[in-house]
Design brief:
The chain is an alpha/beta fold and about 280 residues long. The protein has 10 helices and 9 strands.
């Protein structure tokens, strides 16, 4: 069942559980996520991000994800994550994505608001939901690495103004989280999450979910996070599955695919159970 972000996140906020968003840059990843969600009767979000488009083009992702979501036995939101340009977000909209994140978090506060307000107006007119980011979630390595992440944390009072002026459906927060593999255990600011959740009243999003401790996930969801982004963990699981197949003597891709999918399904299951979205569809 193809749905938008509000269809899965508003019930999550009301009932206190989290929904996983999994980047699925090939059919095997998409199968692992959607098949496991169906098995566990869990709502789920799948999609891709602009930084992943060199791996699989946006149209190619849409070509397999949207039909799979429509045919799924559970609610599936197809989300375009970290859209960095207006043009790419519009492309996702035209291709049939039901939700977009327009990431203007590195722009000025005023420009972030202006850009998102325009995106919301366009998307809401056609039933598509919008995620924004306030503060900035950096990377554990690479060009987006922040020297002092706390300088970029989301300010609760600013968040209230931001949500009111943009009309966004969910808010990605910077609270000690980061993209990619963590080199050291992160320290999330749970009080900040709770305060922002209470003051804004909308679902919060935790980016950089892969690698967090189980208790971190549980506490973040308890305090107001409704969408948790996962990619690195299932990406690594798929690779480990292929390695297992090779060790078992499999010599062709058709033989390795089941190993890849099964390994990713196990990781997806862990996250769904951790977030508490099983049985919620």
């Amino acid at each position: 069942m193809l749905v938008n972000m509000n269809d899965v996140l508003l019930p999550a906020k009301e009932k206190g559980y989290g929904v996983g968003f999994f980047n699925a840059v090939n059919v095997e990843m998409a199968r692992a996520v959607i098949e496991k969600a169906e098995e566990l009767k869990a709502p789920v979000m799948v999609g891709t991000a602009e930084v992943l488009l060199p791996v699989t083009d946006l149209k190619e992702v849409a070509d397999y994800l949207i039909p799979m979501a429509r045919e799924a036995a559970v609610p599936v939101c197809v989300h375009y994550d970290h859209g960095l340009t207006f043009e790419r977000c519009m492309e996702a909209l035209k291709l049939g994505f039901t939700s977009v994140m327009y990431d203007c978090s590195t722009a000025s506060y005023e420009e972030n608001i202006s850009n998102l307000a325009e995106m919301v107006k366009i998307c809401h007119a056609v039933g598509v939901t919008v995620e924004g980011e306030l503060g900035h979630v950096g990377d554990n390595e690479g060009a987006g690495k922040l020297e002092k992440p706390s300088d970029y944390y989301t300010d609760p009072e600013e968040a209230v103004d931001f949500v009111k002026k943009t009309g966004i459906d969910s808010l990605a927060v910077a609270v000690g989280n980061a993209h990619g593999a963590y080199k050291f255990p992160p320290k999330l600011d749970f009080e900040r999450i709770r305060t922002i959740s209470e003051k804004t009243g909308i679902p919060l999003v935790l980016h950089g979910g892969s690698g967090l401790a189980d208790d971190d996930f549980k506490t973040a969801v308890k305090e107001g996070v409704c969408k948790v982004n996962i990619f690195t963990d299932i990406d690594k699981a798929g690779a480990a599955g292929i390695e297992e197949g090779l060790k078992a003597g499999i010599k062709n891709m058709t033989g390795l695919i089941p190993y890849e999918i099964e390994a990713m399904k196990k990781e997806v299951e862990k996250k769904i159970l951790l977030f508490g979205s099983n049985g919620r569809a």
